[in-house]
Each structure stands twice: as structure tokens, then as C-alpha cells.
Amino acid sequence: MKTTLAVALVILIALWYLSFLATRLDRLHHRVETSWANLDGLLQRRAAIALEIAYSDFADPASSLLLTSAAYQAREARVQDRSAAEMALSGALGLLIVDGAIHANEGEASLLNELSALMAKISIAIAIHTDAVSSTQMVRKKFAIRLFRLAGTAPLPVTYAFEFDAI
Amino acid sequence: MLKEKLAIGIVCPYGWDTPGGVQNHVRDLAEFLISAGHRVSVLAPAIDEFQLPPYVVNAGKPISIPYNGAVARVLFGPIAFARVRQWIQNGEFDILHLHEPAIPSISLLACWAAEGPMVGTFHAAAKHQKVIYAIGPILEPAIEKLSARIAVSEAARLTLTNHLDTDAVVITNGIYAKRYANGVRRDKWSGNTIGFIGRFEEPRKGLQVLLDALPIVARFASDVKVFVAGPGDPSEIEKSIDPELRHRFEFLGKISEAEKADFISSIGIYVAPNTGGESFGIILAEALAGGACVVASDIPAFDSLLGGGEYGALFASEDSTDLAKTIIDLFRDEPKRKALARKGKDHAQIFDWEVVAQEIFSIYEMAMVGGEKITLASDSRSWNRFLTRDGR
């Protein structure tokens, strides 16, 4: 009788622990999703501003062309091309900001200010996202989680190359 | 972008009625957010419930425990946990902002009990502690629920990455720069004077370093005077001072905020000889905002606040000879002293609440992207969901 009770207790504790781990993992996956959604939204806004700059008089025809194509690519890129596209856009905008500091009229300066404020937000969003991803990856390495397949069918979250580029 | 009106819950882990950096930070942040039109509720331990401002909810009487080299007034236990849960349930918050969630107090309990967009701010900068590695696995499941982490200084961020293996965004403490910018210059405090503000009885505030430096300073600047402001009993320290130098010291006791602004604007040099244990150095930011020329020890927090010496002079920590040299150098070079003070005053604007609160708010926005509200975690535990689904 005593042994059955003890065994039952152990099983109960094990079950509780597994459910605890599953909740924890679920929450982490959720955090990765929200932080990515946030970052994604900011990147879309950046592409929109890039287009606006490209259509303004500020950009010369060559950089306008470069910006327009980079912004479109960043907007339409499939998941596997996303990183390269965002890096291209960062590069194109980087050139422009250096120039913009030297000659820009009032309207253009406000666009550039908006852009640099957005860039600051993006770098924070990237930090939040990479942190969420790395904690999720750490937890998913746990033995119990792999053994009982607590992650289910959720794909292992990854960081993108452009995120490290931006830091 | 402070347009959208939110319901914000802030948890302060330390006793509200005891003075401290975290409490001041929480109070200023809460008052700033309220004035911007948000609904703010602060949960904090307190001894005297009737002295609390209307936005503070009492979580119970704090317990004094030794922590990180000082006595911390914290609160935990089943009753506190129940109150935290109740506060979360009644608050209907859009976001929770937890201060020092890695300390055994109600912030940790709130982090454990709640679910949804949560932001944590880490204030402490501690040296490497082995004990953290033991409690790390306990903290981890709670800390990783935070959607975003803020550290108040680079030192606090390093403490966090070393101990808990997670990164944070650095957003400094805030000050009301305008309050200090309009101090009135008072003659009795100006001239070749040295100012010190703080609880001078605590060794880590470093008053002793300044005392040791004074004999050398007095040899070169015969009219030097030292003003020490802050709560405490000066009789012990006065006894230890060389009788010939005793008349150069004046202990002002605790001074009001208005007096503090005047004090900072009047004194020749503000000295912060702290030997360690500082994470950000709010008093330095205030001194800069008040237009004082600042001399500080080169501990990491001060070094980064003063931009490596650009906005105030640095001396080797605990080296009173170096401190004396730095002070004499500045007393002799009036233009240099003025230039440092002016640069410092301009720099201090980045610590103003207008700037800092905006940065904190943009972190809130990022945490809230999912569009959820704060709920009690147990409501959504998987087995609970399972049970309710079964019941239907």
C-alpha cells in the first residue's frame, strides 16, 4: 500500500513538472512570436519610410533606384530571403543617412529624424527578439523536453543573420 | 507618443517609507506617467498605510533582511502572494512593470503570478556572487516571462548577463532636470567650496576618502570649506577630523529638494568619492543638471555616467592623494572648472524624465504588441485549460 502511494506521488509530481515545463515552453514560444511580430512591424515601417525617401527630391536618381528596389525586396521577401533583403536595405539607408547629415532641407530632415528614431527602436526590438529566441533554444535543449517532445510540432525559433549585422 | 492611455501596474520591491534609489525611481516614474494621463497603480510594501500617496497600494509590512551588503526591506510569504494576486486581478492592467524581479520580494511574486506583457527593470550592480548560481534555476522560469528587460546602467546590465544569462536594454534612471537647473546661488556655499550629499555614515559613500584628501587640499587652497549634506550623526566623524581642520567642515543635516538645488548651484566642486556598490549614481546626474563641476571616483557606474571624464573629472577610487590633486587642479583653473560644469549640464538633459520616460514607454509598446492584457497565470495553465475544455 505504502509503495503504491509513493509511486503514485512520484508520478503525480512528475506529471506536474512536465505540465510546468510545457507551460513554460509555450510561453517562451509565444514571446518569440510577439517579439518577432513587433520587429516585423517596425521593419515594414522602415521599408515604407525608405520608399517615401526614395520618392522625395532628396535622393538622386541612382540612390532612389537603389532604395526603391531594396525597399520592395524587403517588403516582398520570402522568409529565406528576408535576412539578405533587410541587410541590403540597411546598407542603402546607411549610405543615405551619412549624406543626409550634410545636406537636407527641413522636410527631408524630419523624414531622416523619423528614420533614425525608428532605427533605434529596431535595434531594441532586435535585442528583445534575440533574447527570446536564445532563452527558448536553451529551454528546448533540456532533456525532459526532448524526451517527451514537449515542444510538439513548433519549429525551433531562429535568429536572422541581419539581426547580428545590425548590432 | 505618450498619447495612448494605458493601465499600468508598477511593483516596487522595497518598503515605500524607507528612502532609496529604487523607491525614488518608482515614485518619479509613476508620477510622470500619471501626469501624462495614464492610470497607474503601484504595489509596494509599507509600514504606515495612511502616509501613502493615492496611487500606491499597500502589500503589507516589509521584513528587514541582509542583502547585497545592506539591509533590504522586502516582503514575501503566502499572505503577500495572495495580495499580489488580488492586486493583479483587480487592476485589469495593460502592462506590468516590475522593479528588481530577481530579488526575493513582491516583484518576483508578481512575475510568478501574472501572465501577459511584462517589463522588468534591474537596478542592482553586484559583484560576482556564487549564490546566484544556486538560485538561478529557480529564478529563470520567472525571469524569462518578462517580455523585455531594462537595466539602469551598463554595470547593472553586466550583472544581469553574468548572473542570469539574459540581456537587457540600458535605460538610465531619470531626474527632473528642470528642478535643479534653476537653483539660486547662495554666497555662504560658493567660492572654494566642496560639496558632498549622501548618507555619510555608510563607508561605501566614501566620505573618509574626502576627509583624508583635505589636509593636502588645505595646504594649497587656504580658504577651502567642505559642506556635507545628508541624514546621519556627524559627531563620530567630527571627532576623527584633525582639530586644525575641523572649522573647515560643516554638516548641514538632511536638506530639502529646494535647498539641494541651491546647494548644487552654489558649491565650487561636487565630490562623489563612493568606493563601490553604486549602479547608476543619480546624485551625480542631479549635480550635473544643477550646473556643478563634478569630481567622482572612477568606479564603473560613475565612469560611464561622466563619459570617461568628459562631463566631470575622475580620480582613482579610494586614492585620496589623487582626489586632492584633482580638486586643487580645478580650484586653480577656473575656466576649466566652468567648461566642465557647462558640458555636464548639457549632458544631464539626457537623464531628464521627458527623455527617459519616453524610452521606457516605447519598451512598453514593444511588449504590448501581442495585444493581450495582464491576467493571473493560473487561469491559463495548460492543465486548467484542459479541464475547462473537458467541462464544456
Explain this structure to me?
The complex is a heterodimer of chains A (167) and B (392). With 167 residues, chain A is mostly helical. Chain A has a single domain (2-166), classed as de novo design (two linked rop proteins) (Up-down Bundle). Chain A contains six helices and no strands. Chain B is of the alpha/beta class and 392 residues long. Chain B has two domains: 7-174 and 352-391, Rossmann fold; 179-349, Glycogen Phosphorylase B (Rossmann fold, 3-Layer(aba) Sandwich), CATH 3.40.50. Chain B has helices at residues 21-35, 78-91, 106-113, 130-143, 154-164, 177-181, 207-220, 235-240, 257-266, 282-289, 300-305, 320-332, 334-348, 353-367, 382-391; strands at 7-11, 39-44, 56-58, 63-67, 70-74, 95-99, 114-115, 118-122, 148-151, 169-170, 193-197, 225-229, 249-253, 269-272, 293-297, 313-315, 375-376. In chain B, helix 7 (207-220) packs across helix 12 (320-332). Chain B starts with 6 loop residues before the first strand and ends with a helix. Residues 388-392 of chain B have low confidence and may be disordered. The chains are: A mainly alpha (167), B alpha/beta (392).
- In the CATH scheme, what's the topology name of chain A? de novo design (two linked rop proteins)
What percentage of residues of chain B falls in helices of 4 or more residues?
Answer: 40-55%
Could you describe the largest sheet of chain A, including whether it forms a barrel?
none
Instruction: Specify the structural class of chain B.
Output: alpha/beta
Class by alpha and beta content of chain A: mainly alpha
Share in β-strands of chain B: 15-25%
